[in-house]
Amino acid sequence: TWLPSRMKGLILLALLGIAVAERWDATSEKLQGIHIDAQSMRIAHLRHELEELEELVSHDNDKQYNRVIAELDNRIDAEEEHDCHDHQFTCGRSTGQCVPDILVCDGVNDCDNGHDEDQSFICKNQAPAGRSWSGTANWKGCVTRTTNHMSVLITGNKRMRHFPSRLWVDAVIVDKWTEDHEEVTKTWTSHGFYDYAHHRLVLDPPEGSEKRIMLICDDGGEGVGDCKMVREHDQSVCGHATLLREVH
């Protein structure tokens, strides 16, 4: 069939564009496959590291370590089964890419744009020793009082080689309230971790406390901690607190 030369040229350009697009799609798919394979290898490495950690603490009856190891074990299982779920880190709204949050701030770029290793913000230590927050806690059922003044002081921290995406912390929590016209002060020692991926501070129930209440604080920006008090046994929320970072 005869076609004008101009139309033939347009058809050739269209066919060339399709060929280039198909080649690009194939290349992108291959690169994505390589990236996924690399993440799978990293998760397998984490599995090995967790087994070593379990061996190290196998003779230690510390409930904190046992609970954390069990949680990490479940998280690794989840990463092996799903590409993207609730426990994810977003590489940026414009990218649409997510990576397992347990791979954040581990020294390896998992996001294509390297956002998971951003040292200026994501991987910055927001819970250094000496940092403190204070504010008002409002309770709903955990304790008999409805409100009290609360302060949290980070007394120490360390970063473990096995899971650098978390910073393990020691803290002191001080609650103050009035009861029967008298000032009451309770000081608690707690341990927990700071989650780099979600900018979240998680403190286990204070030592010696019968209530077994955890404190979980998300970074609300501008030095504000959006906190909730959570029952350890069923993870139900029984209080909230807005804590402001203190400037010394």
UniProtKB/TrEMBL annotation:
Residues 36-63 form a coiled coil. It holds the Pfam family Ldl_recept_a. PROSITE patterns: LDLRA_1, LDLRA_2. Residues 1-21 form the signal peptide. Keywords: Coiled coil, Disulfide bond, Signal. It comes from the Eukaryota. CDD domains: hemoglobin_linker_C (cd11673), LDLa (cd00112). The keyword Transferase does not apply. Residues 127-245 form the Annelid erythrocruorin linker subunit C-terminal domain. This is Hemoglobin linker chain. It comes from Galeolaria caespitosa.
